[in-house]
Design a protein that fits this description.
Chain lengths: 118, 216
């Protein structure tokens, strides 16, 4: 999930839409400082879209305030959403061009054809 | 001397698909170790490797240069390299401590917008051997074909690094004598990066060096 929050598509394509075929739940040790640091680099709106795309049964607060970034309960939720859901098979879709980027064995293929490079 | 990460999970067949670590790979590790204190001082949090191949350098950093959990991005055009990097990361037991994101792509293309000025450490052992053009179709050939004067890929990597590096971020890259230090210096200057040579080594077939780029 974290990777999808960083990648962008062909031109201005961000956030990429996610179509997941197979999502895996992995268990990662909770590290408060690590999650807090990552949150400073996250586009919260894009993360909300991703959670919706995947149809995850997780309710994220409407907005993320500074105070929430210190709150253990919220940090644990972010830990789970960002690090414990792995999209094994599926695709990322550029919202501008509709270009699809396949995800295979957990790794997104963002390679473009020569003709697509602006 | 830090031990080299365990690569015993690879077989001959794997090395038909990915670049087998060689003198250039080990020179990069030695150069990083030489700069250990400088790198530790930066407290790197986000680390990126262009052309991660076997995952040797990324795993080496994860194991020895990151006392706290870090965020790694490893990218390669070759899907086997992507899977291999994940295997090496797991084989060396650094996957529980750190978060590794692997992306199959051409240098940092899809990352540049979101990670602009955010990366603390970039590693690159580029395809530096001069060839007619860098547009090669064979996967394994891409691991060394660097284009005219071996510089095409390097030029693009330096330009991307100048956008990705954080204010004190460091970029380490392997180069070949034919790549010409003055050319690299000029390329760095054009995008606001200073360059210095960290380590040089002569192997039986080529003269290699590792350079460090940093914002000026």
């Amino acid at each position: 999930m974290l990777t999808s929050n960083i990648l962008k598509g062909v031109t201005k394509g961000f956030p990429l839409k996610i179509k997941a075929v197979k999502v895996e739940n992995v268990s990662v040790d909770y590290n408060r400082d690590f999650v807090a640091r990552i949150l400073q680099r996250i586009e919260y709106g894009a993360l909300q879209s991703a959670v919706k795309d995947l149809g995850l049964n997780e309710s994220l607060p409407e907005t993320m305030s500074d105070a929430m970034q210190q709150d253990d309960e919220f940090l644990k939720l972010m830990h789970k959403v960002l690090l414990e859901y792995e999209i094994e098979e599926g695709e990322l879709i550029c919202p501008e061009t509709g270009r699809k980027f396949p995800i295979s064995k957990g790794i997104p293929n963002m390679l473009l054809q020569e003709t697509e490079v602006s | 001397m830090f031990p080299t990460p365990d690569l015993s999970h690879f077989t001959r067949n794997d090395y038909n698909e990915i670049y087998e670590p060689d003198a250039d790979s080990f020179l990069l590790l030695d150069a990083l170790e030489l700069k250990l204190n400088k790198i530790l001082e930066q407290k790197p949090f986000i680390i990126l490797e262009f052309g991660c191949g076997s995952g040797l350098a990324t795993t080496f950093i994860a194991k020895h240069f990151c006392p706290t959990s870090c965020l790694f991005f490893a990218i390669d055009m070759n899907p086997y390299a992507c899977y291999s990097t994940r295997r090496t990361f797991h084989q060396n037991n650094v996957h529980n401590k750190h978060c590794l994101n692997i992306i199959q792509c051409n240098l940092g293309d899809p990352l540049i917008d979101r990670l602009s000025s955010k990366i603390d450490l970039i590693l690159f052992n580029p395809p530096y051997v001069p060839t007619e053009t860098s547009d090669v179709k064979e996967v394994i050939e891409r691991t060394y074909a660097g284009g005219k004067q071996g510089i095409e890929v390097i030029e693009k990597a330096i330009e991307q690094a100048s956008r990705l590096l954080s204010s004190k971020g460091l970029f380490y890259m392997v180069a070949l004598e034919e790549n010409n230090f003055d050319t690299l210096k000029e390329l760095g200057n054009q995008v606001g990066l200073n360059i210095e040579i960290v380590l040089k080594r002569r192997t039986c077939i080529e003269r290699l060096f590792v350079v460090e780029f940093q914002r000026n």
